[in-house]
Write a structure and sequence with these properties.
This protein has 281 residues and is of the alpha+beta class. The chain has helices at residues 3-15, 37-44, 48-55, 64-73, 78-87, 104-111, 132-137, 151-157, 170-187, 192-204, 206-213, 261-272, and strands at residues 117-121, 127-130, 224-229, 233-244, 249-255. Strand 1 (117-121) and strand 2 (127-130) form a beta hairpin. The model is unreliable at 277-281 (pLDDT under 50).
Length: 281
């Protein structure tokens, strides 16, 4: 275990992440770049004291569970995760859970779709990337904590408090999500986050428990969706999904029919963004 190199690597990875990257509010003025030590510790499910000792090159040998928690909290790539394990003197082994790192070329693709709203979903239905038009059409995901960016959690555990943009389509989405989540759980049987998500859904939603008990993994795609926008009303868009197989992620792209009212609505949203139109002057 190379404590000094491990400490420097953890500190460098922590300082490159902004609070918005992980769904945290920026809060008051920060004295150092990136996340605070206590924020990383919280997301890695370890104590702040333990994490501080690791960054000060005086911590004990971290377990595989601790290293995997740090890798998730710091949003490490697969190569960075392996390096973290090597610095700690352990074998990386297989990746423990679904990847949340979005390839740069996919992020560039989102930005190059100015007339389409697009998001990237992880294997557990967490929104992990989006473009500006998606934030305007669906929601400003940067203002949400990470837990509330998980669409399957919201569909089953808080459908009334935070509806999924289209009340009419929530039931269909819930069926598809439950089936795909069962397949995800089979691919990542040892991942604690996947297990915790499924456990929360089973205990908190009778409907999810019913769908889960059916053991169905076949999911029909949703080709059209009507988004109930709070300011401009219903917007009907085409819905296409591109699979990123090597990351186990999906790009969801929402487009409007040429010349349709929805196209005009998207054009308006691309101008106003996430600002409110009903603020009195």
């Amino acid at each position: 275990m190379d404590r000094r190199e491990l400490a420097g690597f953890l500190r460098g990875r922590r300082e490159r992440i902004t609070p918005a990257d992980v769904g945290l509010p920026a809060g008051p003025r920060r004295r150092t770049p990136g996340l605070r030590r206590e924020e990383v510790a919280l997301m890695a499910f370890i104590s702040t004291e333990y994490y501080t000792r690791l960054e000060q090159a005086r911590g004990p040998h971290p377990s595989r569970e601790v290293l995997d928690g740090l890798a998730r909290a710091l949003r490490l790539s697969d190569a960075e995760r392996d390096h973290l394990h090597h610095l700690a003197g352990s074998s990386p082994g297989p990746s423990g859970g679904p990847s949340r790192e979005v390839r740069q070329s996919i992020l560039d693709l989102l930005r190059r779709l100015p007339q389409a709203a697009a998001i990237v979903l992880s294997a557990t239905y967490e929104v992990i990337a989006w473009n500006d038009l998606a934030a305007a059409l669906l929601e400003d995901f940067s203002a949400l904590p990470r837990r509330e960016r998980n669409l399957v959690r919201r569909a089953f555990l808080s459908p009334g408090d935070r509806p999924l943009y289209s009340r009419a389509g929530t039931e269909e989405f819930a069926r598809v999500a439950a089936r795909q989540l069962r397949a995800t759980a089979a691919r990542y049987p040892d991942d604690p986050e996947v297990a915790a998500l499924v456990g929360d859904l089973l205990s908190g939603s009778a409907e999810f428990a019913r769908l889960w008990a059916a053991h169905d993994v076949r999911a029909e795609p949703t080709l059209r969706k009507t988004v109930d926008h709070p300011l401009i009303g219903p917007v009907t868009v085409n819905c296409d999904v591109l699979d990123i197989t090597d990351r186990d992620q999906r790009v969801v792209i929402y487009t409007a029919e040429p010349g349709s009212p929805a196209e005009e609505a998207l054009r308006l949203l691309s101008v106003i963004g996430t600002q409110r139109m009903d603020v009195p002057g």
